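Team,

Forwarding the record for the chain on the shared tracking sheet. I've put the sequence and predicted structure together so nobody has to dig through attachments.
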Amino acid sequence: MTRFNYRRGLRFASAAALGALIALTGCSGAKTVENAGGSSSPNAAPVTHTAPRSVPQGMGSGKKDGVFPRTVTHFQGKTELKAAPEKVVVISTGQADALLTLGIVPVGSTRGEGAELLPSYLRTAFPQEAKRLASVADVGSRFEPSLEAIANIKPDLILMNTAGKDAKSLYTSLSALAPTVATQGTGLYWKQDFLLLADAVGKEEQAQEFLDDFHADAAALGKQVKEPVSVSFLRMNGNRLRVFGVPSFTGSVAEDAGLRRPESQQFDDTSEDISNEQLDRADADWLFYGVQGGNAKATALLEAPLWPTLSAVSGKTAVPVDDDVFYLNTGPTAARSVLSVLQKHVGTE
């Protein structure tokens, strides 16, 4: 395969604004039609995007950045915010990432089972906020946050999502403590959720600029790759193996770059479990695999009988990646990191 040198710095602004308002269907495989433009590249970004690029029609506030008071329509109703929030508590995965991307440090956060309060990639990405990140309060688990701990913080905004929980009950409880805004959740909806969250803190235009720039860089990667290239995403969590489809967080980043997926990963769900005997479903030109707990926990995968038979393994295109970034935290800074990894490896093809 022809190889190119490709490096692109992290940028957070762009003059262009794109995306049309859409109505979500609620199914994981719904596609949004966008005017993506044409390209002769075999990896050219498609004109449909599985991950919505704008908030659902009728949601948000319709206010310009920095204008308060505003009333934000979201996935659990409407919430009035009288002033720009200064003390924000996050309940759900990726919301700390989104806030930090917008220049806001949360004052409280929940944690996933066995996970850090804030993933290490955020401390690496925002070293200037090290002191404030170290003081973020632990407010319990993502599914059962501590209402007492949140109340003690006295936040002026709480952010949650509706995925995987009794959203109505949780929203009622949290709203009694402070204005609460609910995004949809799950990796497929990271872009629309980023925009809706940004609206709540008065920075939606800033978030849109970030996404415009991200989409432009992803498309540029697709144009750099002159031959058809497929990418695979695999995660190991304990004894559980999963491959990830197009309607997933990492799948959406690959789709933005127009990178192809193996036939075995072109399904409608976010992910599918596989056995060690089905490891061939993880094969592609490039394989990006994450293991919960890091490389020290990867032995069972790397010693699986079928592992050395994968073409990506024998061809040295199987790449270990940060599990938090690729598979656990569906925020914009994580997406930038995923894109950077793809640029570093696939962008040399």
